[in-house]
Queue: 4 jobs
Job 1
Amino acid sequence: MGAHFLYHRGASSVFLDMYFVFPFLYALAAIPAALALNAPFNTNKQFIVDSKGANFTYVGVNWPGAGDVMIPEGLQYASIESIVSKIKSIKMNIVRLTFAIEMIDNIKDNGGDVKLQDAFNRALGTTNGPKVYQQVLKNNPQFSASTTRLQASFGGLQHIARLIETS
C-alpha cells in the first residue's frame, strides 16, 4: 500500500498517512543493519540463513511504549541513549518499540498530539505526573516543554536506528 496503511478502529476504517507508520519507519531503520549482516536472509529448512549460508538468529528485546503515558517506558530512570546502549551491550540485533494505538487515535481525532507534561498529568495525576515528568526531563535533556508523545517515541526510534547503523 505504499506510504499508507489501513487501520481498523471499531466498525470504521481510517486511512492513516505515512506520518503514523512506526512499523514502516522501523523497517527503514533496519536496512543498514541488514546490509551489514550479509543480507538478504533466506531459509534453509527450519533455519534462517544469511547470504553466505551461515545460520542467523534474531535476538531481540521488546521496548514497551504503549503504557499510560504512551511514550517509551523507563525514561524516568535512564536516558534513551543509555537504554539503547544497554540493549546494544547485551548483543540484541532487533528491537521492537511498541506504541499505543490510542495515541494515534488521539492525534487523529484531536488534530494533533499532546505535550509530554500533559500526558504525564493525565496518566499519573497532578501529584505524581509532574514529579515523573521532571525525572524524564532530567534524564533526557533533548526533551522540552514543547515535546509531544510522538516526538518522544521518534526519539527512541532514532536512537535505535543509530544503534543498528553502528552494529
Note: Residues 75 and 94 are 20 Å apart (CA to CA).
Job 2
Amino acid sequence: MPRKNDQLKRCVNLSAVILVTSTLLVLGGCGKSAGGNAVHVKSATTGEKDLAIRSGYAFPVTKSFTDINNKITTASAYYVYLANYDLDAKNFAMTLDKPLTADDQVRMFFSLIGAEGTNDQSPLKAATYSAKADKYSKAESAGIVTRKNGADVKSWLDRSMLTGEVKVTSATADEISGDVNLSSGDTSIKGSFTAKILKRK
C-alpha cells in the first residue's frame, strides 16, 4: 500500500505537468493569433497603434486599362478589407463598407492588381505587389476608416505618394495571407494579415 508521502508527490508532479501543458497551449495560441493577423496603423485619426485583426476578406473584380493606342487590357483587382471587429461580408463591398458602430472600431483597405490579362476569375498569386509598379502586380490603393462623433472618418493614403509593398506569401482559392507595408506621408498600414476570399454565386 503506497504511503501518503508518495501519493502527495504524485499529485504534485501531475499538477505540475498539467500546469506546464496548459501554459504552453495558451502561449502557442496567443502567438499564432498575434503573429498571423495584426497590424500597426498610423494616421491623424487613429494616432499610432497596434490592432489585432478580428476579420479579413478579399474579393476580385476585373479592371480595364486603355493605352495611348486605344488597346484595352485587363487585370484582376483584389480588394482586401481588414478590421478589428466582425466585418459583414454578405454582400461584398456593399456590406463590408457599412458604417462603423463604435469609436474603437477601425477598418483598413487596400487593393492588389494582378498580372496583365487576368480578370475576376483569376486566382491571386503569391507575389510582391509594389506601390511603385507601373500597372500590373501593383498595390494600388489603401485607406483607414475610423469613427468620430458618430460618423465615419476616411483617411486615404494618397495614391501619388504611396510607397511600400504587399507581400502575399500564401494564396489559395479560399484564402490569402501575407504582409502589408504601405505608407503615404504620415499615414501607414504595416503588419501581417489573412483574408478569406469571397466568391460570387
Note: The helical segments are 4-36, 93-96.
Job 3
Amino acid sequence: MLDGLRSSSFESCYNRRMNDRFPQNQYASDPFFNKRSRERILLPLIGLLVGAFGFSFALTCLYHAMRGVMRLGGFVASGGPYVIAHEAPSWIWIAPVSIVTGMIFVFIHWIAARKLQCLSIHALAWPALFLSLGYNFWEFGFNPPGGGTSVAWLICGALFWLMGAVPVWIVGRAWLRTRSEKRLRPNTSDDPEKTNKMARTQWLNLTVVLTAVAGIYLAILFFRSLN
C-alpha cells in the first residue's frame, strides 16, 4: 500500500511539474489549438482567403480591361444600326463581371475577417479601385491613342485619385492612432494567451497578403491569355 501511495504521489507531483513547465490549458481558448473551435473557423478561414484572392483577381482584370478599352479610344461597341468605329473586343465582358464579383468577394472577406479578428482588405478596396483606375486615366490622359493630351481623362484621373486618397488618409490616421494606443498599454508579452493570439493574427495577415498577391499574378496571366 505504501508503494502504491508513493507511486501515485510521485506521478501527481511529476504531472504537476510538467504542467507548470509546459502548460497546455493556455491553448484551450485559442481556436487553432482546440479541435472543436478549429472546425468552427474552417469556413471563415476559407472565406477569408477566397475573398482576398477573388477581389484582387477581379480588380486586376478590371484594371487591364480598362486599359484595353482606352487603347481603342475609350469607347467600344458591337451590333446596332450605327457605324462602329471600334468593335468591342471579345473579352469586354470581363469589365462588368469583375465589378460585380469584386464587390461580392469584398463582402465575403469582410465577414470572414470579422469572425477571425484579423486583417481585412475591405477598408483598402475602395482606394485600390480608384487609385489604380485613376492611374490609367493619368497615363492615357497624357498619351491618348490619337496623340496630344486628353483633358477629360486627366480630370477623371484627378477625381479618381481624390476619391481614393481620402479613405487612405482616414485609414492611415486610424492605424497610427491604434499603434500609439498600443504602445501606451502595459506589456502583455508574459501573457501566453495574448501572445499566441498575436502570433496567430500575424500569420493570418501574412496569408491574406500572399493570397491577394497570388490573385493579382494569376489575373495578369489570365488576361494575357485572352489577347
Note: The chain has one domain: 37-226.
Job 4
Amino acid sequence: MSEAIRNFPLFARPVVMLLNRRFVPFLLAALVVLLDRFTKGLIKTHILAYDTITVIPGLFNIVHTENPGIAFGMLSTATGPWRDVVLIGFSGAVLIAISAMLLRSGSRRDSVLRAALAFILGGAFGNLYDRIVNGTVTDFVELHSGQHYFPAFNVADSAITVGACLLLLDMWRAKERRVRHVSEANIDR
C-alpha cells in the first residue's frame, strides 16, 4: 500500500484503492459481467429455449440458445466430461493470466491494452460463470443476411471480441511507435 493511501482514514482506504488506476480495469470487467448476467437473465426469464423474436427482418433476431461449446458454437457437438474440464480449465487460466497482467501498474500509454484486457476478463468470467453453474452458455443475439446465419452470441462474447480488436489496435499502435522511434534515431545519426 502506498504512503498516500495510508494517510487516508481506514474507512476510506477501500474507495481510494478502487480509484487507483490499477483497479479501474477490474471495474470495467465487473460492469461487463453485470451487463452479461442481466441480459442472460432477461433472456432466460422471458424467452423460451429456442424461441426467436425477429427484431429486424432478414438481419437481427433475439433467440434463446444454450451453447455447450465455446464462442460461436465451436465444440458444441463434442461430448464427454473432458470438454467441460478443458473449457473451464482454459477459462480459469485465462482469468488468472489477465488478472496478473492487470495488477501490474501500467503507464498511461497502456490504457488501450488495459481496456482490452478488461473487456476480455469480463467476457471470459461471464461465460465461465454460465458454464460452471449451468453447464452451457446462454446466447441470444443472432445476426443473419437472408439464409446466411452468424452463430448466436451474447454480451460476454461481444466483450471478448471488442477486447481482441483493442489488442490488435494496441499492437498496431506499438508498432507505429517503434517505427517512429527507429526513424527518429536514424535521423539523429
Note: The radius of gyration is 21 Å.
